[in-house]
TrEMBL record:
Source species taxonomy: Bacteria, Bacillati, Bacillota, Bacilli, Bacillales
Repeat in keyword set: yes
EC identifiers of the protein: 2.5.1.9
Keyword entries, A-Z: Repeat, Riboflavin biosynthesis, Transferase
Molecular function terms, GO-annotated: riboflavin synthase activity
Subunit and interaction comment: Homotrimer.
Pathway assigned to this chain's UniProt record: Cofactor biosynthesis; riboflavin biosynthesis; riboflavin from 2-hydroxy-3-oxobutyl phosphate and 5-amino-6-(D-ribitylamino)uracil: step 2/2
Keyword Repeat: yes
Record InterPro entries: ATP_synth_asu-like_sf, Lumazine-bd, Lumazine-bd_dom, Riboflavin_synthase-like_b-brl
Protein name per its UniProtKB record: Riboflavin synthase
Length: 216
């Protein structure tokens, strides 16, 4: 489990590709301080396992499913990537619950500078539009962001100067792709509501529904 608060930007030092699999060698500093074999690291929002490491870099494998359904296949040597270690149970929780399991990829439609903010409109897969709402949460390349506006199969987020500097979304241009993870709570709630409806329960939120499920 992650928070979506990027700890640092790493650099891809080497990519060993074989078919639809990759081994990434990533240079980092901050996260190397207490890294262990088998640790989980979110790389551009994708949960990967550390298979080897030194004092300045670590390796992680990318499996075919991840290769096909995330943006990691588009990385090149020298690419910068968002890095976050799995959250500690006794640490401060700042972003939102991010699993590191990518739902799909989106594409940047438009970037607009408004004073000190950067508005980024991102096209999202049609099937996932039901999981977004204004002021809700979304993880883009592993960065926890608040949805500023929703549109025609798109979301717009607003980057503050700190996020634009410390996360790769601030470096990306129109037309580039990003990894998307939609709010896990929204997905669970949608699944739960569909299950209730399939069981021939009343549709939507009703007083009876809330009472039966312990809300009051």
């Amino acid at each position: 489990m992650f928070t979506g608060l990027v700890e640092e930007l790493g650099i891809i030092k080497r990519i060993n590709a074989k078919g639809h699999t990759l081994t990434l060698v990533i240079e980092a500093k901050k996260i190397m301080q207490d890294l262990h074999l088998g640790d989980s690291i979110a790389v551009n929002g994708v949960c990967l396992t550390v298979t080897k490491f030194s004092t300045i870099q670590f390796e992680a494998d990318v499996m075919p499913e991840t290769f096909k359904n995330t943006s990691l296949a588009s990385l090149k040597e020298g690419s910068r990537v968002n890095l976050e270690r799995a959250m500690l149970a006794n640490g401060r929780f700042g972003g939102h619950f991010v699993t590191g399991h990518i739902d799909g990829i989106g594409r940047i439609r438009k970037r607009t500078n408004i004073e000190n903010a950067i508005l980024v409109e991102i096209e999202i897969p049609e099937d996932y539009a039901k999981f977004v709402l204004e002021k809700g949460s979304i993880a883009i390349d592993g960065t926890s962001l608040t949805i500023f506006k929703t549109g025609n199969h798109s979301v717009t987020v607003s980057l503050i100067p700190h996020t634009a500097k410390e996360a790769i979304l601030g470096l990306k241009s129109e037309g580039e792709i990003v990894n998307l993870e939609f709010d896990v709570m929204a997905k669970y709630f949608y699944s739960f509501m569909n299950y209730q409806q399939n069981e021939e329960k009343p549709k939507g939120l009703t007083a009876d529904f809330l009472r039966e499920n312990g809300f009051y």
